Amino acid sequence: MGHPIRFSEAVNIGLHAMVYLAGERAGRTACKDLSEILHVSENHLSKVLQRLHKTGLLLSTRGPKGGFVLARDAARISLLEVYEAIEGPLEQKKCLFEKPVCTGPCILGGLLENIGTELRRYLSNNTLADFSGRIQGGEHACA
Fold first, then answer.
1. Whole-angstrom distance, CA of residue 81 vs CA of residue 128
2. What is the reported pLDDT for 5?
């Protein structure tokens, strides 16, 4: 069965890392430091950051003074871009099953489609800049 909204751990990590980097004024942030701030596995974070780097959302520098920084202004990176860089295109679900089984109208009506439309609208209309500064030194302000 599919889910109307899918936020994998990788997307969760990626969104929070990008929001942190959007508010970081000191320059590059090392993966190790970011993993401590977000309280996540450094290995998993590294894989997510490399994916974001490969899609052009992050710049990366190796070495003792290296780390990650946004590739462009935070106001020009939508949450949808981050999501899709990690998960691929956001699917518009109309049914909880991969292959619909209902004959006639869905028992959930248009609920799943409406949720998907609203999610896409939210993610595409909000940028990293809208949330920058909400994650500082491991204190999350997402609640």
1. 10
2. 67
How would you class 19 by CB atoms within 10 Å of its CB: exposed for 0-12, middle for 13-18, buried for 19 or more?
Answer: buried
- What are the residue ranges spanned by the domains of the chain? 9-140
SS3 90: coil
Rounded-to-10 torsion of CA 111, 80, 11, 114:
0
Average the pLDDT over 86-99 and give the result: 85
CATH topology of domain 9-140: Arc Repressor Mutant, subunit A (1.10.10)
**Has this prediction a pTM greater than 0.90?**
no
2-33 confidence digits (pLDDT tens): 555 668 999 999 999 999 999 987 689 999 99
Which amino acid is present at 135?
I
Q: Supply the mean pLDDT for the chain.
A: 88
